[in-house]
Design goal:
The complex is a heterodimer of chains A (179) and B (448). By secondary structure, chain A is an alpha+beta fold. Chain A is built from five helices and six strands. The chains are: A alpha+beta (179), B mainly alpha (448).
Chain lengths: 179, 448
């Protein structure tokens, strides 16, 4: 596979990083990725990333959870083995509904939360035993790294990045096979 | 930014009060057109009412149709059964008082909820909200007048709302006799004055320090620190007195019934209504171009609170309902039997308005930033919480003879007018930005 060149600009402050991202985008360069030790508010908007659709999936998973809980409680408590609990015979789903509401609520939350996290991992291409894509371990501590693709414009890009307050600028060969 | 109540708004408020007063007056005159002499005739003419009742679906609790049908403690009075005529007559006469009381409490609880919200902002040293402080201070100016009017209504209405204020009833009721060291009119009014005194003292000083902080030197935060301390102290006082207030002013209309989480339940109602009104007034003032320092993110945060506290309210409503429904103890469950049988539409309609609507309207993050969306959700929430108070008071006072008619709407209009007049007058007294607050810069730049 062909190796492509990328430039790594390293920053030590999230505010400097934010304004750098804005400057680089204003100059019409394409930012491949930004690595940060913690979530930086508004970075996604500054990078021009499309809004997340995770919330929509969470809503749908919640609906699935609600449906599963309703069907489950109906089968267990009404259809399969109706019992008389506290003088409330289980012959009708609606009449026993208040007792099922806590279960329906819990399963709604359970489905929405767990499936949303799993979706997030899949979408971010993270799974057990996967090698880290992180190009520089310092980004897990106190450094911020901006990755920009290079297309025969090393010099102008380097000069631009210097003006944005980068503490370190490296040009590296990115091996696509590495991940 | 200075604000003065516009003439148009003042005229609107005065017209609302005038129309409301007409409605309230009509309610009293109309209810007294029925008296001992013509009550039998009145009931006979009303035949359709009985039929309706007999064919009503009996909901969840079929084994409890024998139980008290929402006639409050009255029907349970041992050895002193009222005749049906007397009973209906009482309910007809109670209605205008109860209608007035529900509306008065509703607008009072909005301002009290805002006062608690305001104190929390100070105690938490919140950085996002100081640009809204003057709006909140304006709304809390209604705590004292609203509370005093409420106590006057109690004083005048007496046993028309609180059955335990009727000596004849107490004389025949062992349960109320046991509670009479707490539930008696003098001690009730003294307690009411203590609660109101504490709340409005805090309100007075927090407003005073907030204004003083504006004029103080840039390095002098002593007024802010004082506000922080009294806010923390107030919150402790508030959570006890708010709970006692809810037993006194609301739960005691059904003096046989009790619920241990009632204080929290009423708190959730007042908190969400208060936050909703902060959002509505903020959006109103912003539309006049007066709050240019309030941005989308502030509206977004208020809408998040509206959404979250609506769900919190539902959680408490359901917690109270489910435990009583499951345990099915007669003296507890009559409360819900009454509401499900005689108040089916407002009781379940309120859950739809207070839970389903905010849940679906405000779930989407983007919608929380659209002012007309927040206004729409806010109107639904306010109406839902009016119904909530209606469902708390009416079953014990007018039983199944409820209707949202001229007395109720008149009372709402009257107190809405008074609320607007007091709140917007107070808003006009000081600049709309609490510029001395040490967090005000952070708040102006608040961005989500």
């Amino acid at each position: 596979m062909e190796a492509s060149k990328v430039i790594h600009a390293i920053y030590t402050d999230d505010d400097v990083l934010m304004s750098a991202v804005k400057t680089v985008r204003a100059e019409k360069y394409h930012i491949e990725e930004v690595f940060t030790p913690f979530p930086v508010h508004g970075l996604d908007k500054a990078m021009g990333l499309a809004p997340t659709r995770l919330a929509i999936t969470a809503f749908l998973y919640g609906c699935v959870g609600l449906a599963v809980a309703s069907a489950m409680m109906n089968y267990i408590m009404i259809v399969d083995w109706p019992q008389d609990i506290g003088g409330k015979p289980s012959f009708s789903f609606l009449e026993n509904l208040p007792a099922f509401v806590p279960i329906m609520f819990e399963l709604t939350v359970f489905f929405a939360a767990h499936l949303m996290v799993i979706t997030f991992y899949m979408r971010s291409r993270i799974w057990p035993f996967k090698d880290a894509e992180n190009p520089d371990p310092r980004t897990t501590d106190d450094h911020f790294l901006m990755e920009i693709a290079v297309h025969n414009n090393e010099e102008s890009l380097t000069n631009l990045l210097k003006t944005t307050g980068a503490v370190e600028i490296n040009i590296v060969d990115k091996d696509e096979d590495a991940h | 930014m200075e604000y003065k109540i516009s003439n148009r708004l003042r005229i609107v408020a005065i017209i609302l009060m005038f129309l409301g007063a007409l409605g309230v007056g009509y309610g009293f005159i109309d209810s007294h057109s029925v008296d001992e002499d013509n009550i039998a005739e009145f009931i006979a003419n009303e035949g359709h009412h009985g039929d309706e009742h007999a064919t009503e679906a009996h909901g969840l609790e079929e084994d409890h149709v024998e139980a008290d049908h929402g006639h409050g403690a009255e029907a349970e009075v041992e050895g002193h059964e009222l005749s049906h005529e007397e009973h209906v007559l009482h309910q007809i006469h109670n209605r205008p008082y109860a209608a007035l009381y529900v509306a008065a409490f509703f607008f009072f609880m909005i301002s009290l909820g805002v006062l608690a919200f305001y104190a929390i902002q100070y105690a938490a040293q919140a950085g996002w909200s100081p640009v809204l402080f003057r709006v909140m201070e304006g709304i809390t100016s209604y705590v004292l007048p609203g509370g005093l009017i409420l106590l006057i209504i109690v004083w005048v209405a007496d046993s028309h709302i609180f059955i335990w204020m009727d000596e004849n009833v107490v004389a025949h009721d062992a349960l109320i006799q046991n509670k009479s060291s707490w539930l008696n009119k003098t001690w009730f009014l003294i307690r009411g004055l203590i609660f109101l005194g504490g709340w409005s003292t805090y309100r007075h000083f927090s407003r005073k320090f907030s204004v003083a902080q504006d004029l103080a030197d840039i390095n002098d935060n002593s007024n802010f620190k004082k506000n922080f301390r009294i806010s923390a102290a107030f919150l402790v006082f508030y959570i006890y007195t708010e709970s006692m207030m809810s037993w006194d002013w609301i739960m005691s209309v059904d003096p046989h019934w009790f619920s241990t989480l009632f204080g929290w339940y009423v708190f959730a109602s007042m908190f969400v209504s208060g936050i909703t009104v902060i959002a509505l007034i903020t959006i109103y003032l912003k539309s006049k171009g007066l709050l240019e320092f309030v941005n989308d993110s502030h509206i977004h945060d208020l809408a998040k609170f509206m959404f979250g506290i609506s769900i919190f309210w539902t959680y408490l409503w359901f917690s109270q309902f489910m435990l009583i429904w499951y345990a099915n103890i007669p003296e507890e469950v009559t409360y819900f039997v009454t509401r499900i049988e005689d108040y089916n539409l407002p009781f379940f309609g309120m859950v739809a308005l207070n839970f389903l609507f905010p849940l679906l309207l405000l779930m989407n993050s983007d919608y929380k930033r659209i002012p007309w969306f927040v206004v729409m959700a806010g109107v639904v929430i306010l109406f839902g919480h009016y119904l909530d108070i209606f469902n708390m008071i009416m079953p014990a006072t007018v039983g199944d003879r409820w209707f949202i008619g001229i007395p109720e709407i008149g009372s709402i209009l009257f107190f809405a007018g008074l609320f607007i007049l007091i709140v917007f007058n107070s808003l006009g007294k000081y600049p709309l930005l609490a510029k001395g607050n040490p967090f005000v810069k952070e708040s102006e730049h608040f961005h989500y």
